[in-house]
Write a structure and sequence with these properties.
Strand content of chain A: 25-35%
Largest sheet of chain B: 8 strands, mixed
Oligomer: heterodimer
Distance between the termini of chain B: 17 Å
CATH superfamily of chain B: P-loop containing nucleotide triphosphate hydrolases
CATH class of chain A: Alpha Beta
CATH architecture of chain B: 3-Layer(aba) Sandwich
Number of strands of chain A: 6
Number of domains of chain A: 1
Helix content of chain B: 25-40%
Strand content of chain B: 25-35%
Number of strands of chain B: 8
CATH topology of chain B: Rossmann fold
Strand order of the largest sheet of chain A: 3-2-6-5-4
CATH class of chain B: Alpha Beta
Largest sheet of chain A: 5 strands, antiparallel
Distance between the termini of chain A: 17 Å
CATH topology of chain A: Beta-Lactamase
Bound molecules: guanosine-5'-triphosphate, magnesium ion
Chain lengths: 132, 205
Amino acid sequence: MADLVLTTSVLEETKTQIENTLIKAGVNTVLLIDEAGNVVTVCGDKTCNLDTTSLAALAAANFGATSQIAKLIGEDDFLLLFHKGKKDSIHFARINTDLILVTIFGDNVSLGLLRLRVAQLVKTIEKAFGHK
Amino acid sequence: MALINLSKREIHCKIVYYGPGRCGKTTNLLYIYNAMNSRARSKMLTIETKGDRTLFFDLLPLNLGKINGFDVRIQLYTVPGQTTYKATRKLVLKGVDGLVFVADYLKVRHEKNIESLQDLHRNLLEHNLTLEEIPIILQFNKYDLVSTPIPTLTKEELETNLNRELKTKIFEAAATKGTGVFETLKEISKRTIHYVATKHLLTGH
Ligand SMILES: Nc1nc2c(ncn2[C@@H]2O[C@H](COP(=O)(O)OP(=O)(O)OP(=O)(O)O)[C@@H](O)[C@H]2O)c(=O)[nH]1
Ligand SMILES: [Mg+2]
């Protein structure tokens, strides 16, 4: 697993894309993390009370554990990784081999729309990181 | 995998405390957490089973201040030492940049120390890593028990069993009292940052 070197331009571009695709669609918070559990960037309005460090560590561990569970039952990976809460829900998506996009959203956003937007975003972020 | 943010001038590294069950990994982190100024450390996250055994990992994020103009953030992790949690240990090792192997001075843990080091070798290999590459140091913990009637190993025995191939620096520690804890942390931080920095910053970026 190679180290991740983030330049200002890649980071800015990624943030803009996250804002445009997800935050403007009503999503509360988006975390881009790496598989080691480091925070790459955080977007959204309600992030000041959020313990993003712990969230990133747990999300990466949870993501890794779920992939292993998939393999144990003979799947490559699960296609949908999503936890639904009473108010807020959380969705995970893999980007390239070592980034994970974590989206936290309320019931004002439908899962269908979210999945569509995340799928678009995954492609653009893959491109941005590919060109660094 | 280290994360180097050129925009914020931050370096994030991951250091993992590895070792057999009950050797004192969580105790190391707890001591650091309690002794450090709250500006230099964040909340400690621990996932425990009933009682005090680690189920998944502990995490303690530290801010080591500026080094070469970069803000250095270190995440200390512990693995669950119990044999059954092998898969979990492998997950925690993902992206590791530096290692502390904590061994137990207790005589009854002789085999467990050796098994755990072998388990570390195997798990690293599964991530395509080796101990020739990743910085590692040894901590011989529970040194305080040597002077009690409880049967313990000798330093020589521990060295022969664990450091014959590694040939790395050793710290004796009594983590419950904090002896050797910061010495261990300082040395592994230094080596880890050096390792990450020479890989990147001093080579062109
Ligand atoms: N006497 C003595 N006891 C210690 C020392 N360090 C840890 N202990 C005790 O050993 C026990 C296990 O310590 P932990 O830190 O929970 O061990 P661990 O390595 O995290 O164990 P797992 O989570 O199961 O992998 C606790 O009861 C500690 O108080 C030490 O330096 N001396
Ligand atoms: Mg523990």
